Task: inverse folding
């Protein structure tokens, strides 16, 4: 009986320690936005970063996905791919509550798909529960198009036991 319990414990530990993607439909390959919500974004097939689909917006509108509130100490990476034909800017938010969020501006330097790593932007403590991106308006005379694809938030239960997790390191400097 004892060995069975140990085996069950090991199996449960292995299941918990596997890194998991917190987002659903992170590359829009469902062909619809769900479960993303938005004020104007749509799914298109115009030059996606990968697969068949990406998300598209014209103007400064938001797209957001909520997920199970997750301890930042276990979030090992936040990345996404973004494209704007004009050299412009866009904003993104990390939400820790319905109206509790941090916002930052990203400067776009060229028209090609670019990967951004937002992991540094996590708070040292708290539970992340949604991510939100914006398009833009203005910049040059071209249409204010924004494309988004392959968003990823990786959660790993096992890293909470390690003092070298990103959140712990950040806490030293807060
Ligand atoms: Ca895609
Ligand atoms: Ca413009």
Result:
């Amino acid at each position: 009986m004892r060995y069975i319990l140990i085996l069950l414990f090991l199996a449960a530990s292995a299941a918990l320690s596997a890194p998991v993607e917190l987002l659903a439909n992170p590359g829009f390959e469902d062909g619809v936005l769900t479960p993303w919500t938005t004020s104007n974004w749509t799914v298109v097939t115009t030059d996606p970063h990968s697969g068949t689909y990406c998300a598209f917006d014209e103007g400064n509108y938001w797209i957001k996905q909520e997920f199970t509130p997750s301890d930042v100490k276990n979030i090992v990476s936040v990345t996404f791919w973004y494209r704007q034909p004009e050299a412009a800017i866009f904003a993104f938010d990390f939400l820790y509550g319905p109206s509790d969020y941090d916002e930052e501006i990203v400067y776009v330097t060229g028209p090609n798909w670019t990967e951004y790593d937002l992991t540094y932007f996590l708070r040292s403590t708290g539970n992340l529960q949604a991510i939100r991106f914006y398009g833009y308006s203005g910049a040059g005379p071209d249409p204010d198009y924004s494309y988004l694809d392959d968003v990823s938030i990786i959660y790993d239960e096992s890293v909470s036991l390690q003092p070298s997790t990103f959140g712990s390191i950040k806490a030293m400097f807060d």
Residues 86, 138-142, 144 surround calcium ion (ligand 2) (CB under 6 Å). The chain has one domain: 19-171.
